[in-house]
Amino acid sequence: MDGNLVAQESCPDLPALPVALTRPIRATASTPRPRGGYLVMLTTGAADGGQRATLAFAWACAASTLEIDSRVFLIGDGSYWAYAGHPDPVAIHGFPRLAELMQDFTDLGGTIYLCSSCDRICSAPPADDPGGWQRRPDVQTLGLTAVISQAIGRATVTF
User: Fold this and answer.
1) Consecutive H or E run containing 114
2) How far is residue 56's CA from residue 87's CA, in Å, rounded to a whole number?
3) Using CA atoms, how far apart are residues 156 and 37, in angstroms rounded to an integer?
4) Which of 26, 47, 83, 88 is the most exposed place for a label (fewest CB within 10 A)?
5) Smallest Cα–Cα separation from 42: which of 55, 27, 29?
């Protein structure tokens, strides 16, 4: 494979991407932006091995590097990623590790919210999980009404 392409092993039907497309870029004055930023809804837990969670946080990081205000909302099975240790083993080929993407996102000023109704209910950690119910320190709980208010004026993307 050409050294300038990134393999897409987890999505074999997609062509390889030029490496330059996988690196952060800086926004320019002509970069189009949604008026209110992005609200990324992550509804998928560990069933797909973290692929959609990785895509969701890669999207959020990309938007943040373009200086677009972005927020991630973990809801339903997506609440699985709110707990300590859960993102750590996820490594999807062609992307940084999920735990690294989550850290990068918050370092870029992004906010991660967890549905308060889903906290400790949806996608509950298994009894033998060492992280258990310990929520990651970078995750804040938020009720559905507050999420709706966050979504007003934002482009919403769901994974």
Assistant:
1) strand 111-115
2) 13
3) 9
4) 26
5) 55
Non-local CB neighbours of 45 within 8 Å, separated by 6+ positions: 53, 76, 77, 78, 79, 80, 81, 123
- Length of the chain (residues): 159
Q: Where are the beta strands (DSSP E) in 34-75?
A: 38-42, 70-74
Tell me the C-alpha distance between 41 and 106, whole Å: 16
pLDDT tens across 86-111, in order? 999 999 999 999 999 999 999 999 99
Prediction pTM value: 0.76
Residue recorded with tokens 């970078």: 138
How far apart are the C-alpha atoms of 88 and 90, rounded to whole Å?
6
